[in-house]
Amino acid sequence: MRLLLVEDDAELSSRLSVRLQAGGFAVDHAYDGETAAEWPDLAMMGVLVLDLGLPGMSGMEVLRHWRRAGIRTPVIILTARGSWQEKVEGLNAGADDFVVKPVRSEELVARIHALVRRTQASGAPLLQAGGITLDPVAHSASREGHAIALSRQEYRLLELFMRRPGHILSQSDLLERLYALEAEHDLNALEVQVSRLRRKIGRDAISTVRGLGYRFER
Length: 218
Prior knowledge:
Helices cover about 40% and strands about 20% of the residues. By secondary structure, it is an alpha/beta fold. It has 2 domains: about 120 residues, Rossmann fold; about 90 residues, Arc Repressor Mutant, subunit A. The model has no long low-confidence stretch (mean pLDDT about 85).
């Protein structure tokens, strides 16, 4: 699962990233509020970990911006203060959990996993595009009521496409998201996965845009 860590302290961000990766997460970084507010593909992240004390645009402002923009990805707030007033303000702005700094990385990982479990238990909206229905909780896909048998990587690839129907996804972006925790990104492996997925969902479902990448047709 991918997450976005928004933390302006580079040393702390590096330490947390190592522990989060060890916990099974692929970590993206933003070091200021403006970058985090306009981060692409936020809906594709599993969790957003947000520091409040950011330079420029504060973490609370970023959170409000995300929620106004319709981003429903779970958010864990990092704060050095942790007063009850700040917690109330954050919860009202749309936060899902709070962690007070300094925080042990083990606690942060545990809280993220707990938040993911709660989110999955409450159900996630079905994704529907191109005549295909994908259930993010059950990790299953179907077409006209008929199940589509997918490998783990095929499912992940289909989910990436269905969260951005009609948009071109570059090969480098897909490689990073599919193989983020692996030492090497293999372009041939991606091409094989796309080919296999096409055979299962229809060759016309995924278009190759020469020189740019792939597009899932609506």
